[in-house]
Amino acid sequence: MPGRQSRRSVLAAITALPLTGALGACSGNDSAASASSSSSRTGKTGKTGKTTITFWSALRGSQEVVDKFNQTHDHIQVDFEQIPSGTQGGYMKLSNAARADNAPDVATIEYPQLPGFAVDGVTRDITSMISDDLRAKLLPQSLAQTTFEEHTHAVPLDFEPMVLHYRKDLFDHYGLEVPTTWDEFTELSRTVRRTGGGRRLVVFPTDSFTQFASWSWQAGAQWFDTSKGAWNVSMADAPTRKVAAYWQRLIDEDLVYVNSSTARVYDAQIGNGLVLTRMSGAWDAGAQLTARPEQKGKWRIAPLPQWDPKKPSLGTHGGSTFAVTKNSRNPEAALEFIEWQVSHPDALKARLSSGASSQYPAATDLIPVGRKAFDEAYYGGQDIYRLFEEEAHKVSDNWIWGPRMTATGTVMQDAFARAGAGAGTVLSSVRAAQDGTMPDLKALGLATTQRTT
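-> structure tokens emitted (453 positions)
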């Protein structure tokens, strides 16, 4: 919840840095001028009384959302620019534009990167601007992920509890039961290894630090906390070591494939039925439907295995937020657009018109819209949104992302890839990520501590 102990001191720990210095750590060779264009100027009010604001996003369906908003709103109009996804250049573009005092009014930022943009002074504190009506519509756990020291820096669009996707046809063929605990998952992976004819139960993804973070989150890890006015880093805490040891055992016993989840080999593993499960956020059901229509009816979704079923806990995997930038000259209009975009049925209908999606909306009143648009036949008629709703409430309230998660994740993923080739371990990869994180935090002028367990 907003204001809980793990977030209470976040902004107190954020040194008030000049914008140019803060953003220097995440800027690249692109000049600020190249990031600025006439189409990306902040909002302005013309002679007609209409306010024009700018919106940058890499999310599919954003153009359709903007078109619908512009058709139904006379006093505000939105200029939209489709930008690359964050790690493919979108975040660098936003950082460079903010340095030039030319960021858009509204920007899409994923949860892991939001604290960094708050530290850098790119996002605006919109706490007092958010209406009680909007707060009441949003899942509290989602709003908590955008709120630090009771200061809100973005409005969540979706909230993605991690779930287990499994091939029901192959489970039935081999007489397998869906695991409810991680111990059962281990035994199941051994069964599949022994009887599955070269199949494996799952892939350990070397290119997804967010997936490993979600497993650690579920186990009770706290990679970052901000108590006592500093960023305290402990990426190899006891829960994380437990998770790392668990996956290392599966790797050592050759019970899982170890490779990238974006490589062609992964497409072959899923497409050819060589992998029986996937663990990912709720959004992945729609991605699966779009990518592999020929597997219709073969998949189902179940809760993620638990360490202790009597104390269920989860982390999230994926999800996006909308922030009003400090550069915005019309923040009230920007927030009005954001509120409509995250909570109005017409906005979600417009987004879904661009293609299948199973995102779990942070504004839970929109669940019926998502449910109606999704082809339930793909998952054998299963009401996947009911499951998502149940799982979303299990997301534990003990997690905060660090202020440089893109860089932290890159180090971890590089080390995972080496570990997959036998040069290192899962745990050494996590420790390498911590070692790589500390210089970035110190370069920002942040007070830091670290625990090297």
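Residues 2 and 144 are 5 Å apart (CA to CA).
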